[in-house]
Amino acid sequence: MSDPLHILHSVFGYEYFRAPQQEVIDTLMAGGDALVLMPTGGGKSLCFQIPAIARAGTGVVVSPLIALMQDQVAALKQAGVRAAYLNSSLTGTEARDIENRLLRGDLDLLYVAPERLMTERMLDLFRRIKIALFAIDEAHCVSQWGHDFRPEYIQLSVLHKRFPEVPRIALTATADEPTRREIIARLQLENARVFISSFDRPNIRYRIAQSSGGAREQLLRFIREEHNGDAGIVYCLSRKRVEEVAGSLASKGLTALPYHAGLSNEVRARNQARFINEEGVIIVATIAFGMGIDKPNVRFVAHLNLPKSVEAYYQETGRAGRDGLPADAWMIYGLQDVITLRQMLAQSEADETHKRVEQHKLDAMLGLSELTTCRRQALLAYFDEHAPEPCGNCDTCLEPPQTWDATVPAQKALSCVHRTGQRFGVTYLVEMLLGKADERMQRFGHDKLSTFGIGKDIDANTWRGIFRQLIARGLLAVDIEGHGGLHLTDACRAVLRGERRLWLRRDSKPVKTKKERAERAATRTTFSDPADQRLWEALRTRRRELAASQGVPPYVVFHDATLAEMVERCPRTRAELAHISGVGERKLDAYGEEFLYVIRAHAYSPESLAE
User: Model-level pTM?
Assistant: First the structure.
């Protein structure tokens, strides 16, 4: 065995463990089991990679995605760790070579998909070697209630039955209390120590706004003004919209690529590879994209539709800013998202118990979106974490929304739903409130009702916002037949009777001055000193060249945070460079002189001397 702290220093280039990494590693080193809940970018991987290197034998990592395995193995090899993966991307000869290395004890870590692991052939192979530990990554995949459910994960309890002496660690960044209980039960981790880190990602700014039409234009403006040249992910609800948005962004000169299940495997793989390996690529995707993406310098995640749950939102937004530098979680959504998701839920073939759980999750997501108080406090509270103070880094903290007493307008809207028979959609109801008598309305005789035209004092966009919030608060429901009609719920009675005042969020378009936009854009990795900015660009260029020569992503060489520290501290010797976070012994040997040359050349350049 080796000392974990020495491995942290010499292999990974970090000075100290973050809490609770040390305790997790000590648990595994002593042969115990662990369940680790830690936010994306919090250092989960080190919790099993270091003890796998330190303990005798090979650490076996169960991983759900080929891309995730390839990414982590590439990064480990760069650090000098003997790592490999077994999955369907390998030829038979390549797989046999990996298996022979495993039998010889020539691997510190082996990544394997759950489907392959569960074969008798693989389990028999494991019986013939010394296993340091089993790590079950993305453990929330065991939950049948989750959107990333993988049936094979349920069978992983076999590891405890077949190898009772081998310590196990299950890890996830996304699990509420019911999901945690499910992970423990299904993986037989009743005796495991549970480690729950803060779910807070303070470097991410959460921003949610209502769409007032022109979503693509809003997205383009956001990217141009705040993330021009940055890598980002844009999530859409449908494949069709993915194609439309990717095409729209590309037509404006951005490198935007689509990703959804309707594309061929080759196209998906090519687009994902470009996103991982190139700088400034934007992926526009359905939720088919993302789990296991380790790219640390994703500067924004945008949603053009409402996610189905807070867990999905947290997991997807968590792909931004894994390097700890400032990042944005930006979302716009509209009334149609609410109606569509409710319809999809009603039409699903799931049993009633499952539907009730999903309905609760959707209601929680709607609640988060319609908040007038700190979003981060509500997001953390969903995961049973208390934040005593507003965060100061979300839209509701930075630009507190206005509220208004909407009791009377809400009564008008509810009465309109009632008098038209509780079977019409929002567009029809808004036109009725505005007094627009088309042929259809005249045919039904609704232009003669007392509610016809009683809302002329309010514009159509505001009415749509009122209906959206009434649905979000459960005062109106979408019909289960799937036609988008609205009907009253029992919860609306108190409002209709005047027994309850209703305060709603006032929808408004945020107006940012040129100065405010510039200040926000400056929170990216930019430097006020032009000389520092030139050095930053020079280091990134050299990193890109070195990565391309080896066929690996640039961040596998060094993270942006490591390069930023080089700019700040300007090391001139190998000894000084060794103290930069993320520079381990293997990378110091492989890249030290390359980056020191860039730094020295910059220090003595004519531009620097002139300054």
Answer: 0.75
